[in-house]
Amino acid sequence: MDKLAKQLREDAASINVEVSAELDDRIRASLLGITPERSRQTEAPQRPRSTWWASSLTGIVAATIVIVLLNLNQPDPLVPVANSPTERIFNPRLNLNTVASTAPLQKELEDLEADLKKAEDAVRKEIGLFP
Amino acid sequence: MTDELDLIDAAKAGSVIAFTELVRSYRERLLRFLLTRCESYADAEDALQDTFINAYRYLQSYDSRWRFSTWLYRIAIRNAARLRTDHVAELGELRDEESDPLKLCIAESERENLWQSARRLLSDEVYAAMWLRYVEDMSIKDVAVVLDRSNSWTKVNLLRGRRALDAELNRGKPTNESEAYG
Predict the structure, then answer these.
(1) pLDDT tens, B89-122?
(2) pLDDT tens track for A67-95
(3) CATH class for the region spanning B1-105
(4) Containing domain of residue A59, as a range?
(5) Given a cut of 50, is residue B179 above it in pLDDT?
(6) CB count, 10 Å around CB of A11?
(7) What are phi and psi of A8, to 5 degrees?
(8) Which residues have CB under 8 Å from A127's CB, separation 6+?
(9) Do the domain assignments include residue A69?
């Protein structure tokens, strides 16, 4: 340690300070009256991992249902109406049967709903909602 | 140091007793430092109390990559600065030689205490940098963090502070120092 650094340290040590009992009591009393701020990380409740799976699965199924329902509500495709007899012969009106064309989708929806129910039951059982 | 980390962990978990132990190990050091930055002994005591209150309140934000003293001194400097601002706003400018708390705490001697010289010769920030470096043994990096300055600013100003105080220490010998420091 060089001469100046040594002198600075010695001179700092020669500054006489004393923390009075009164100040000590003040500090202690202040600390007792304080609630430390918790970090955001500790404030956030810890959710079980199964909740993540449950919410993901529910989201996927909900999105699928919305897509299916939107497709079911689509109007029948427009078929050009033939005006002339020639057009009627070579271009007959094709009126598709909606029920027939959406039956597979309906079945798929029902299957998906059954799968969803099974998945929900499994998750509930896992997180202890069922006895 | 491990003890200190244990105490910090316990205090973070809510132990006032653990934090009181930390207060005990830092209170004199901090008060000595604050005395050199406040307008009166009472202000220094208030700043010390506020420092520990703030430290305890925001202990969760303390990052153990830094020394605990670095974090505490950073809080202490801000509190002292706030009290000085309040003091100036209430009472106008500023120190009265007779009430200088530093002067009151230094015994009479043949030679002026170097820290009194430092108060005359250096700016507040350079003074604080010198104190943290030479009394608290902080690294340049830690000093820079406490003062919220760059490493290069800290190095340059520590050098200036040293030159000024070296000249003061060797007063009477021929010197060509004439610049204002800090």
Answers:
(1) 666 555 555 566 667 667 666 677 888 889 889 9
(2) 888 887 766 555 555 566 666 666 655 55
(3) mainly alpha
(4) 46-122
(5) no
(6) 22
(7) -65, -40
(8) A48, A50, A51, A54
(9) yes
Note which residues in 29-48 of chain A have CB less than 8 A from chain B: 30-32, 34-39, 42
Please report, as a single letter, which amino acid is at residue B35: L
| A23 reaches B (C-beta below 8 A) | yes
B43, B114, B130: which to substitute to probe chain A, counting the most A Cβ within 10 Å? B114
Whether residue A3 lies inside any domain: the answer is no
Residue A29 maps to a domain: no
Return the residue matching tokens 């057009």. Answer: A87
For B180, which DSSP code? Answer: P
Angle formed at CA B76 by CA B72 and CA B82, multiple of 5 degrees: 150
Task: For B128-152, give one letter per residue: b (16+ CB within 10 A) or e.
Answer: bbbbbbbbbebeeebbbbbbeeeee
Sequence ranges of the domains in chain B? 1-105, 110-182
Task: Judge: B107–A26 Cβ closer than 8 Å, yes or no.
Answer: no
**What percentage of chain B carries pLDDT values higher than 90?**
48
Is residue B119 within 8 angstroms of chain A, CB to CB?
no
Tell me which residue in B23, B31, B115 faces A12 most closely, judged by beta carbons: B115
With a cut of 50, say whether residue A27 has pLDDT above it.
yes
For the record, the structure tokens of A125 come out as 């059982």
> How many structural domains does chain A have?
1
As a residue count, chain A comes to 131
Contact B165 A8 (CB under 8 A): yes
CATH of domain B110-182: 1.10.10.10
Considering the domain boundaries, does residue A96 fall inside one?
yes
pLDDT digits (tens, 9 = 90+) for B64-94: 888 899 999 999 999 888 887 776 666 655 5
What's the whole-model pTM score?
0.61
